Structure formats: C-alpha cells, structure tokens
Amino acid sequence: MSLANAPAIRLLLLLLLCSAALTGCSSEESPAELPPRVALVQSLEAANSSSGPLRFSGVVRSADSSQLAFEVPGRVERILVDEGVRVERGQPLAELDTSDYESQLREASARMAQLEADLARKRLLEAEGILAPAAIERLEAQVVSAQVARDTARRNLGHATLEAPFDGVVAARLVEPQTVVAAGTPVLAIQSEGPVEVRVDLPETAALSLPLDASLQAEGELVTAGEALSLGYKEHGTQPSPGGRTYQLVLQGEPPDGYNLLPGMAVRVRLSRPASMKDSGPQRYRVPVSALMSSPAGEHFIWLAVDGQAQRQDVEVTRLEREHAVITGTALEAGAPVIVAGGSQLSQGLQIRAKERR
User: What superkingdom heads the lineage (predicted)?
Assistant: First the structure.
C-alpha cells in the first residue's frame, strides 16, 4: 500500500466508524411503537317503535317541609321531641329559658299598673280643677307606651315556646339543649305526613312532547319494595337543570299504606305517551348505559369505531331503560360499531383495535 494513500484510508475508516455509531444510537433512542388500544364494540341496535310508557327514575321529597326557629333569641332549655316522632299542629316542640322574658313582663306590667293608678288620681284632681288638662294628656301618653311595652314582653314570652305549624314528622334536631341561639336560627326540621312529591328529571324530548298539566298520566313503583304508587301532576320547572339539559317535573301522590315513604327514596316512574309521541320523531337506537358519555357541559355522546379510530358522535337521550339508553343522533345507522367500555379513556382519532363484545 502506498504511504501517500494512508491518510485518505484512515479518514475513510473514521467516517465509517462514526456512521455506525450514529446508527446504533438512533436505533437505541427510537421508541417502540405502541399497539392500538383494544376497544370492545357492539353493533348499534335500532329501538323498535313502541307505544309503551316512558320510564324514568324519580326521588321522593316531602310536600311540606320547614325548618323551625324561635322568633326571639335565648338559651334553649328543652327540646321536647326526638327525630322521627309524629307531631300535631300547635304541639310544643322546644322551649327557651324564659326567666329574662318573665322578668321583663313583670316589670312592664308593674310600670303600667303604676301609671294607670297615677292617671286615675290625677283625673280626680283634674275634675276638681286642681290640675290642667295638659298634665293629664302627658300621663295618658305614658300609659299607652307602657301598654305597648307590656304587650311586647307578653308576646316575647309566648315566642319562647316553639310549636308545630302543621301535622308532620320531626325530620331533624338542629341544635341541642343549653345552646344559645339568635332569633331565626333553625332549631328543628319538620316534614308533613300527607301527600308526598316525586321529582323526575325529564330530557328535552320528553319535556317537549309530554302534556305537562293535569292530563299527564303517571304511575310510580317503590324501587326497594315493588309497591305501586299512584301519582298525578303537580308542577314543572321551565329552566334547565344546572350542568344538564333536563327539566324538573314534580308529581304528587298519597304514600301506600304500611310504608314509610321518606324523602330521598327512589321511585320508578312511568309516564304514558301521548298519541303524538308514539310513532313520530327521528329514528331511535338502543345502547348500553356503559357506552353513554357526558361532557362537562352536560352533552351526551358515544364513541364509534371508524376505520381503526375512535370517533365521537353527539347524541340525545330520549329515555333510560335500566341497563340501556335510547338515543337519537343525526349520523347514526343501525349496525354501526359502538364502543361499549372504556369510553372515558378515549380521545378523538385515537388508534384502536375493535373487538366484538360477546
């Protein structure tokens, strides 16, 4: 080998070594490509047109509920009832320490008696011409003022006893004896024993089409007991619920005999469809509840598996059927692959591998 070519050969070897080193580093730093996420899918099922009732979940609330408070301040001396006890209208429920109010009443009564006695004596003197009428008028004004003070003290003493405003059940004791309370501080909560109310949240489609008046036909069923509950329309809200697109419907009915129907208990509600709802409107589809997603704004949507990607599809819920939801949407077709699990982990355009749910 010629010595003149030695530097060129060494340079060539150096370039080859650097290229090999860079290739090795590039191979080591390149991350392995993650496999697509497996997504369980189920074919979108068309919901058959039905003339059956609409079904919703409802919650019991008391028709009359009130927090009771003393109209005067003081120290709570006694709570006369326990939670869950039935009470009658006018029944004493709690008492304040009345020593200060009794003292005020005695003082006001004594001052009034004294002024009335002075007035009687001075009227005799006026009749004899000893006193001028002006002196009598001033004393008469003082007597009227004393009478007002006495009546106020008597009324305050009466307000030291808290009475039930209606027949009902004591729902909660909010303070304990020996507590000093200001006027208007809630002491007891009481609920009526008469008709109960059931609150139902209606989706837009139901609120739009149902007759929200006395002609609405409704039936209820206690979730835990399976007992029927006759219901009728009472009122409805015209403002959507915060964070959602539902409207409140309030039904009313008598509780079934032998059951303590308490606020917060769950009721299944069936609302009869009007004729205009039975076979009209957009095509409806049935999906598992697990496939239904909600955005922070209260909008509902599902995920579809389209060409190996997750695609969001906005929908509207028309009713719930236990484990399924009946929905409508502008671009839905029967048989479309709906992702039925893990929707909270998906994003628009995410690569997925669809797997049929069995």
Answer: Bacteria
